[in-house]
Fold these 4 entries.
Entry 1:
Amino acid sequence: MHLYAAGFNAWKQLEFSPLEDSTEEPDDIAAFQKVLSDKLIEVQYADLTCTIVNTSTGLQYAGFDGEGIECRLKEGLLSSTAAIAGNGQAYDGHGVITQCAPQLTSTEEEGKAFSGMHDIIQLVAYETGFVALSRDGKVWTWGDERYSATLGRETTISSPAESPGLVEDLEDLPSGKIKKIAAAGYTVIALTEGHDLYAWGGHPARQPILHMLSGNPSPVDVEENDILDCSVGEMHMLVLTTRGDVYTIGENSNGQLGLLSQKTVEWVKVPLSPRGEAIVGVRAGQRSSFIVTKNAHPT
Amino acid sequence: MPTLSQKTQLLKHCTEAASTIYAECTELLSAKGQHDQVTVTRTSLVGCGPALIDLLSRQANIVQIIYQNNLRAITTPPVITTGDENPSSQQKYDLALKRLEDIASVAYSKFYAYVFKDLPVCWRQLYTDARILNFCLILLKSPYAVQHKADGGSSNDAHGCLDELVKTLDLTLVLAGAAGERRGRRWIDKTLELLHIIWLAESEGQSIDGDSAADYDRPAKRAKLVEIHGISNMHSVHIAGATFSTNEPFTPPVMHPVRKTEALSIEEFQTYMDRPHDPKLGPKPLILHNALGEWPALSTHPWSQPSYLLSQTFDGRRLVPVEIGRSYVDEGWGQKLITFGEFLRKYIDPTSLAGTRGHTNPGSNGNDDKRRCESKSSPENSKDTPTPKPTAYLAQHQLFTQLPSLRNDILIPDYCYTSPPPHPTDARIDQPELDEPLLNAWFGPPGTISPLHNDPYHNILTQIVGRKYVRLYSPLETARLAARGKENGVEMGNTSMLDIGVLEGWDEAPATGSSEYDDEEGGTEARVDNDEDLIKATMNEKDIDAFKAVPFVDCILESGDALYIPIGWWHYVRGLSVSFSVSFWWN
């Protein structure tokens, strides 16, 4: 398998083996570039400053070599059922979802606990809140009520912004239940079993990544494609279609779209079709993008 | 080389900033390694995490190195310019600029993620330090860093660079409050002071003697300058005497005049507050006529003259946050950072600027300057649409911390050194005692509106330029004034849903406009939804009659007046002409 990356690289968070001599200040990667090959590649974690990939020989890191990563991994803070929001709050899911103190020293204060959400398979954070997905496809949101569009639901006295509330618009969708969620910045996306992509969110002072973005979860049209995988960064988004193409949209200030343009408001197909490889997954860091491929078997 | 000393000082000032940032980061990073948190103060960068500190430290180091190289280059002619440099050093320079922009944008995203009062100060300092380094880099490529030959071709470059330099620091002052103990506001104020002296000398092409800002104290000299440079290409020439238009499109009737008196002594004013007619209500509003005495803003440094205000703002280059829209409760209302020159020219009074050569539109300088200065787009690059111009209001802004020279044109009224009574009905409103009064500037064209609201302080509202209508309702009437609640997570309980202008028939009900995005830093802030439709729909004639039955007092403030607004009094303020007021909150 192979990992391609583009985007923000100030801490060499896209470089798994040093590409050039290390005294130079690392520049961003403007077009998708192969950064890792291994029998197994799973992007486990990708944030602003570092990337963690699961390989056949164990975890591999790229990026800022902070001491925190190891212990955060041990504490399960970098798992798929834990997330760190931009306003510094960390949440953790163990049957009961717990809100931790802003800093990563999770011992100093006890958190707020939320129950009532069972069998959570994914917990993600956007800038000011959280989204949880259960095995049976239910989606909950909670966070700062000033950015209510990212909640994707009505807030009421009985269902306030700060406590998990069900996103009812995502119940009984025509193409099946939600199987994957992703969130970053002020955007949340969700993918159904039937390959439909839904999105909601937006920031009152910023141009949204998708012009259709609002506080109501709505289907996203990517040139009429079915969507296999999806991910979202602070101000960009990328999807993998069932045809095996990757499309990106949004801000490109750090090259995170892997394109030459400064930004795009329409979906653009990424010009990446490596010979003998098939694209199997996509992942966005806050300001970067990753594409995972595997060698196609000639059958 | 008259300005050499200032230029040298400024370069030294920048070198110091880069080296102190580098030292501070290095210290934090090494302390982190030893699990030694002793040196960590509340105001340090430590909360930003080691990754960002590391990135900042690398950029600080690069700026240091570039400055050292530049210093060496200056001593040996020919002077290095952008075009002559080898590509790799230019690439390094560009990458450092980009990284500083990245750091600032990461910090800036935190300004939104937190409610401002909860925002850890480290993010404001990170933003500030990144912008300071940013300034250092731009300065190096500007004519203000090295002695340029006085060839005509460089003046446009100078304008473009100056725009960028001023903008970089103003963004920091306005958005981040220029946080940080070792540099912060102090560093920026000094930088702007030096830059102002250098810029004045460069643009006038003559020696500077002493405090250049004091030129305005010598009208005779100024007149002479005008004569000398009258036909030359000097953009700092003032048309002495041109004042803002006094045109008043609409004048509301004053129905229940506020009591008016000649200026009181501090003792008399204390007595006025201590012995109210109605002890339950406390002191009532009072106009103090001719209370502003010999304020320079009303005499030697006339705020009524656009040329004076431009002279204090790098010819209008300084950025100020203005509120766009009729009233902050309207749909489509938003805050925007624009240059002071654009604010004057586009929104305040186009006619008064017709004769001046004030630098009011850096955006029109052409792209060459921009490229040369590696500038980002100007904050006012939104196209000039021919749509009806919205009202813009420089309101409730800490203008005087940003522009200390204007602060020196006004005096804190003696009345603010009295001890006023507590809130008449609700002690929870009373705030901890202020060390000194809070100053706010209120500068706008005719028709600006502050909707009916109350403040948690006593207020002396001083009128410096133009006229304002003020209507006041007593705190005892609060129950009848339809206070708002929490709206979209923003507490609006001190603002009424009643739109006085609409209810009195002075204004059309505001249209519910479509919102417009502005992803520039300092763009539209959290918007407040409007309830006008709701009000219109739910307010029947009975309600309107009930509103009209609520007693009030009102007045029109003239230049030189001060209005005492006691704590808790609801007030509606409406600019009638071009108007510049300053409020002083105290307790």
Entry 2:
Amino acid sequence: MAKVQGDVVIDIEQCKGCELCNVACPLNVLAISAEVNSKGYHYAIKVNGNCNGCSNCAVVCPDGVITVYRAKV
Amino acid sequence: MTQNFDIPEIRTPENLVYKKTSVLTDNVLHYCPGCGHGTTHRLIAEVIEEMGIQSEVIGVAPVGCSVMAYNYFDIDMQEAAHGRAPALATAIKRVFPEKFVFTYQGDGDLAAIGTGETIHACNRGENITIIFINNAIYGMTGGQMAPTTLPDMPTSTCPYGRDVKIMGNPLKITELLAMLPGTYYVTRQAVHSPALVRRAKKAIRMAFENQKLDRGVSFIEIVSNCNSGWKLTPVQAIKWLEENMLPFYPLGDLKVNGELVKKSE
């Protein structure tokens, strides 16, 4: 069976660190960084490579900062 | 040093699943982190993009947190006086009947100062779409009590909770409007979880499609969170919303195709 591999690209300068994507992610790929962006927000980061490209994080993101890719590998 | 989990080789256009729509401008939204306004803006923009009506849609911005909505949509927009968005949308739709006209209003705008305009526009059956964001509070001005504030809910003007004996009962304006003959589609949605966002998008799509039928007002209430007004973090706020707001404002369609939806229970 083909494995599905996803990847998310987060625009960290527009991210406001609301953590809604962390709650929405079923695979716990996302977390909030210890660093801050230029506006002082702790932005979302990837903490593992389990993403399957379900796009739940991008769908709930109020600021639309997440772009999702999905490929069969 | 954080580990890098990027997979650049799959970031190709054919693998793209989700991208911010081009109907929204690149301006950073001024809303608080986690606010449902941003999600709703994006849903409206996505529906406009899917229907291919970017040059044929006219939005009406309200007064409230979303007063600067026209900075974020790459469409024609008009700013209305406080609460008067349905009246302005009526005028725009009557002058340009072939255009898609929608208003975007909060609960302080639509259910407080603009109650008269809202009820009369809905009763006349104007062929417009009204998007109503209900967060049970006046977010922009500092979290004061709104007509939609829940019983016993603390706000900055009722810090001990809303006492319905003194301050009156919350106004369920969506139920009220569903009773009017001029409304064609009335529904209540939410945008705090992925499944609900996808359902809300379908409702917004239907509301815009209904304008082609010329049958009356399509009214969508979006139950949203106000993290700064409720004094909660975004994650706590969506939990509070599920526990308190949704029992009082149950989600679902109230009127579809001009017929009231009968509740099974």
Entry 3:
Amino acid sequence: MISVRLDPEKCRGCTICIKRCPTEAIRVRSGRAKIIKERCIDCGNCVRSCYYHAKVAVADPLSRVSDFTHSIALPAPSLFGQFKNLEDPGVVLRALLGMGFSEVFEPALAAEMISALTASKLGKNAPKPLVSSACPAVLRLITQRFPNMIPHVLDLISPAELAAKLARGRAVARTGLRPRDVGVFFISPCPAKVTESHQPSRLDAPVIDYAVSMSEVYFKLLPLMKRSQAMPRAARDGLRWAFSGGESRLLGDARCAFVGGLDNVIGMLETLDGEEDSELDYLELGACPGGCVGGCLTVENPFTAAARLRRLAAAAASGPDAGASPVEVFSQDFIAEQAKPARELIYTPTTILDRDVGRAMQKLRQVEELKERLPGLDCGSCGAPGCHALAEDVILGWAEESDCIFNVRDGVEYAANDGIYLPPPFRRRKDDEQAL
Amino acid sequence: MPMEKLTLSFDIIGGNFIAAGEASSATKAALRKIGLSNDIIRRVSICMYEGEINQVIHGGGGKAVIEVDERRVAITLTDGGPGIPDVSKALEEGFSTATNEIREQGFGAGMGLPNMKRYSDEFEIISKPGEGTTVVMSIRF
């Protein structure tokens, strides 16, 4: 299941998204961009890059709040970076109650707990580097393509998942309601976290009931915030998890690298894959440029949002403790227990040519032979992101060799000899040289 | 039933430390596509990377041929370099003939051949001074 969809009315069948997709999960077919679901990691690159807004990230409807006796909002820390002139995150929390939520639990607090647990793991026979488990798009990338990195992934669930577990448990204890009468709503900055909420990769069952879009919530919050007084809030440095480098900052002196943007993440993982004796202690990886503030369900420019969050986190850290910190309410042992994943990540490659090794070898040989006959221009006109992808598609039976526009060149060459105009892609190199 | 076989071959350029490792990366990518287990791929990558680096440092470049059949991955590395006068000495951990310049670049720690031997199931060196070196390794399924 994925949370990125195509609006076929808006799609023009251009090559923008197929080329920006880091897992080569999109093909243009019959003039429309089709997503190969098992390859999509919900990174949102296609949503960000489509000129025509034909790729959309879908989240759950906010109206579900009324389905529950007691509803809890979990605002991702990036939410607090969306508002200009926001001095106190407590205003946003109060406005969330005004929207109909019964209570708010800050995932930024859970992020602080995760950071403390991570700090205690560093150095003690932990693999080097430990890799952050916060970005679900990165986790899916790792399980698809970097099996050697799986043991490096932090064995802790994400802050949003931990927040959901702690918040529901606390609400059930306080209200006496059945767990299913308590609705947990995550306010998500990205489609990857929406999918992760529905299908957690490291839990046996979802702990978040609905994941709603940050941009939808943003526009509902704006009028309410004008009328809201601040309420006590407790998160401090956890707010920094919303931007690239924030997570690392909470780990003090550890040697951390923070990498934002999926192309950079892939480059980093390729360097580390199979490497022994890394100099890094911790690797903070986020699929979006600038970190979670760059998610495609956010509203504000990611770098502006990060600047605001830095200021808010610094003010919170130096100001008086605004509220009783749930970190003190829950015991350390309880938090550590709740933060443990229930499942291991499993290597699930999506680009194997055949289940049978012998047949896969035969197909790989055919792919290599076909690649020799393709022009190597990666123009995308065939609907695949490059010639290597078309070659694989043809051998897998998803496309035809004749889908290559350059294969028709030989057929039209006689026209050039007759002096008829041919556009540049159809000219042989020597024709152009003569013209110049 | 006909035996399926896959052959990949690469030219390794001597002295080019920037491109060193590209052949083993390409091999890794190809083996992933045919669905070999991660453990096999990891061992092949280590053996091939070490061999590639040796060809870059000592061999003046050479050729890497990878053959996959139903039983194993075989790696044959051939170069026309100076050859190895004492093969058993070369297999000792830490023994290296790399120049200081090479060592200062972080290579030549004397672990290449020992690692290749350790991670492969079959390992053979054919070398004579002045006649180049051939290393044959196989990793069985």
Entry 4:
Amino acid sequence: MKQQRSKSNFLLPLIVILGFLLVWYLVCFFKMVPAYQLPSPGDAARSIKEEILAGRLANDIIASLWRVTIGFVLSAGLGIPFGLWLGQHARSRQALTPILNFFRFLSPLAWIPFAILWFHIGDKPAIFLIFMAAFFPMVISIMTAVASIPSIYFRVARDYNYKGTELLTKVTFPAVLPQIITAMRVSYGIAWVVIVAAEMVGCQDGLGYGIWDARNGLRLDTAISYMVVIGLLGLAMDRLLSQLTKLPNIRWGYDR
Amino acid sequence: MKLTLGKFIIGALVFLAVIGLLRFHPWSDKGTVVDKKDRVHEGPKNDARQSLTVGYLPVTCHLTCPVTDFSSKTTKTNTNFNSQRFSDFPTVVNALEAKQVQATFMIAPLAMKMREDGVPVKICYLGHRDGSEIIIAKNNKAKSLRDMKGKTIALPSLYCNQNLVIHKLMEDQGMQPNDINFVILPPPDMPTSLAAGAIDGYFVGEPHCAKAEMNGTGRVLYLARDIWPNFISCVLVVHEDLIKERPDVVRDLVRGIAQSGQWAEEHRAEAAKLAAPYFRQDRKVLDYVLTSTPHRVSYAQLTPTDADFQKIQDMAIKMGILKKHIPMSELLDRDFIPENIVAAPIPLDKIP
């Protein structure tokens, strides 16, 4: 029974993906749209092969993973503690929520000119843009999670005389861990989405740059092949992060 | 194996370390991966003692930039030039302001706008002559710009010479400035927008015009030279600090570009072959631009004259794109142009 279930878990998405590819192929095969508007799956596959053989794809993947990971680690490293702290201090939360929300709504595209002026060219401006996109949603969701912990937890904690660090590690942190994992997954998603915009900024490699470059080179087939790689890698990274939900001290948040 | 938080953190750190190592190759002796990756050809660099990065966009108006890069690596030069490809002009402006590149190719009125805004840059040389066309849909019957009244035409930027020239042509044909609806579009999107019917025509530098012709969706209404003989769209812009601090490098650069231009003029098919991997574009499109007719683009007579730029400035001020008259002596610097221009001795067998 269990094996059958895991088989269909694998099979159903596969059927959907193959169906999607088939529709794409047929649209191109019967020339429902002209070739310059939508390259065929075959063209995309050929250009993926070309990029792999030229060694560009591996280099671009590494560059993008590096920028996204650093941007994400920075925003998680600063955003999680900051969110926890804000969640526990009602006055600061009141004071800072509007400005945090303000920055949350600014598209990373708007920061591009400043990113170049302040951080010049290369990895730094891209990491800055990813950070700006991922940090604020992370802080806000963690802050909200902490603020909505039932007050009974803290009343009990007071009975046990938990204060400061102890309160944080024994009550607050475990209570919001499931939400932290979710916030991290959502932020990572944002960081990965922003890569195309972030690598517009005077980068010389990376998957997002690959798309811009393909566009400039009038090669839409290459652009599609890069889109496929970005989607697949994003999926893989999310699968990895979702493994966190299987941690024993977090599982309770998901076993309902 | 049971997953714990500790193991997860260790796993994340290992991942970070591996990616970091792959990214920066600390074991390789010097330079970043980025630099190496973009080097199409690694020549002997004979006795080059110094190097300079020069910015460009993958358009034929900037063709001499990759040719100079290649030439500096395959022939005897004092300076090694590394061409850095950008994908849009606003980024080039920011990079020049931040002095991340100190020499770059750029559309002429934008360079004048930068000068007006107080960024100390000078125009030291031209990138090309001609090299732009007004393209309309293949089935459009228009014979002159007058027939395009009420239609939509795309331009690459407000600060491009195409914008000035097309307004001059409208004036010459007795049209009003609002007879044509102008939109700003990124050049790579122009051929597809035209094919999809979103715009009725566009005026931009090559190879974005040739692309529509080769797709069978567009045709040339005007060559730039028909409207404005010896048309200029892009120029070599150099930061004044570089001129002051390393005049010998600027001299090498201008000489290199002049010689590359002469070489491209004499070896058009080879120039298309050389530039294709730098531009990462289809060689056929570049080949078409360079070899179908010599009237499309030219790389001779690249000395910027006062008359050329006075004309551009007057038009731009009249249209309200620029605000103040800048004396030509402040804008142009012709000191580095060599007297005798010979074609760069690029070994043809080394072109990849």
